[in-house]
Write a structure and sequence with these properties.
With about 100 residues, the chain is of the alpha+beta class. Helix content is about 55%, strand content about 20%. The protein is elongated and about 60 Å long. It starts with 10 loop residues before the first helix and ends with a helix.
Length: about 100
Amino acid sequence: MKSFDYRGIDEVIHGRVRLAIMAFLMGARQSDFVELKKTLELTDGNLAVQLRKLEEHAHVRIEKGYLGRRTRMTVTITPEGDAAMTAYLARLKTLFPDT
Protein backbone atom coordinates (compact mmCIF):
# COMPACT_ATOMS: atom_id res chain seq x y z
CA MET A 1 0.00 0.00 0.00
CA LYS A 2 1.21 3.50 -0.86
CA SER A 3 2.15 5.81 2.02
CA PHE A 4 -0.73 7.99 3.18
CA ASP A 5 1.08 11.20 4.09
CA TYR A 6 -1.30 13.69 5.61
CA ARG A 7 1.42 15.35 7.68
CA GLY A 8 2.44 17.69 4.86
CA ILE A 9 -0.81 19.64 5.04
CA ASP A 10 -0.17 23.30 5.79
CA GLU A 11 -1.58 23.77 9.30
CA VAL A 12 -1.73 27.54 8.90
CA ILE A 13 -4.12 27.31 5.96
CA HIS A 14 -5.94 24.18 7.14
CA GLY A 15 -7.81 25.95 9.92
CA ARG A 16 -11.42 26.34 8.83
CA VAL A 17 -11.61 30.14 9.04
CA ARG A 18 -8.13 30.67 7.57
CA LEU A 19 -8.99 28.33 4.71
CA ALA A 20 -12.18 30.32 4.06
CA ILE A 21 -10.22 33.60 4.05
CA MET A 22 -7.61 32.22 1.67
CA ALA A 23 -10.21 30.66 -0.64
CA PHE A 24 -12.10 33.95 -0.80
CA LEU A 25 -8.92 35.90 -1.51
CA MET A 26 -7.83 33.46 -4.23
CA GLY A 27 -10.82 34.71 -6.19
CA ALA A 28 -11.12 38.29 -5.00
CA ARG A 29 -7.35 38.94 -4.67
CA GLN A 30 -8.10 41.78 -2.24
CA SER A 31 -10.80 42.65 0.26
CA ASP A 32 -11.43 45.01 3.08
CA PHE A 33 -12.01 43.84 6.63
CA VAL A 34 -15.72 44.63 6.61
CA GLU A 35 -16.36 42.68 3.40
CA LEU A 36 -14.47 39.64 4.74
CA LYS A 37 -16.32 39.85 8.05
CA LYS A 38 -19.74 40.01 6.39
CA THR A 39 -19.03 37.44 3.69
CA LEU A 40 -17.57 34.87 6.08
CA GLU A 41 -19.95 35.77 8.93
CA LEU A 42 -17.20 36.26 11.51
CA THR A 43 -16.77 38.44 14.54
CA ASP A 44 -14.23 41.26 14.49
CA GLY A 45 -12.05 39.44 17.00
CA ASN A 46 -12.06 36.08 15.26
CA LEU A 47 -11.28 37.60 11.87
CA ALA A 48 -8.50 39.77 13.32
CA VAL A 49 -6.82 36.79 15.02
CA GLN A 50 -6.98 34.64 11.88
CA LEU A 51 -5.69 37.44 9.65
CA ARG A 52 -2.80 38.05 12.03
CA LYS A 53 -1.77 34.40 11.77
CA LEU A 54 -1.95 34.48 7.97
CA GLU A 55 0.04 37.72 7.94
CA GLU A 56 2.71 36.23 10.23
CA HIS A 57 3.24 33.50 7.63
CA ALA A 58 3.30 36.00 4.73
CA HIS A 59 0.13 34.55 3.17
CA VAL A 60 -1.62 37.94 3.24
CA ARG A 61 -0.58 41.57 3.39
CA ILE A 62 -2.60 43.91 5.59
CA GLU A 63 -2.64 47.65 4.98
CA LYS A 64 -4.36 50.09 7.27
CA GLY A 65 -5.51 53.47 6.12
CA TYR A 66 -8.45 55.81 5.91
CA LEU A 67 -11.40 56.14 3.60
CA GLY A 68 -12.63 59.61 4.38
CA ARG A 69 -12.70 59.77 8.16
CA ARG A 70 -13.15 56.04 8.65
CA THR A 71 -10.34 53.60 9.19
CA ARG A 72 -10.03 50.92 6.56
CA MET A 73 -8.08 47.67 6.59
CA THR A 74 -7.29 46.11 3.22
CA VAL A 75 -6.23 42.47 2.99
CA THR A 76 -4.39 41.21 -0.09
CA ILE A 77 -3.23 37.68 -0.86
CA THR A 78 0.54 37.62 -1.44
CA PRO A 79 2.52 35.60 -4.00
CA GLU A 80 3.60 33.44 -1.06
CA GLY A 81 -0.06 32.97 -0.15
CA ASP A 82 -0.87 31.95 -3.72
CA ALA A 83 1.96 29.42 -3.68
CA ALA A 84 0.91 28.11 -0.26
CA MET A 85 -2.70 27.63 -1.41
CA THR A 86 -1.58 25.88 -4.60
CA ALA A 87 0.65 23.55 -2.57
CA TYR A 88 -2.13 22.98 -0.02
CA LEU A 89 -4.61 21.99 -2.73
CA ALA A 90 -2.04 19.73 -4.41
CA ARG A 91 -1.34 18.01 -1.08
CA LEU A 92 -5.07 17.45 -0.49
CA LYS A 93 -5.40 15.89 -3.93
CA THR A 94 -2.76 13.31 -2.99
CA LEU A 95 -5.06 12.18 -0.18
CA PHE A 96 -7.86 11.54 -2.71
CA PRO A 97 -6.07 9.88 -5.63
CA ASP A 98 -9.18 8.38 -7.26
CA THR A 99 -11.16 11.63 -7.49
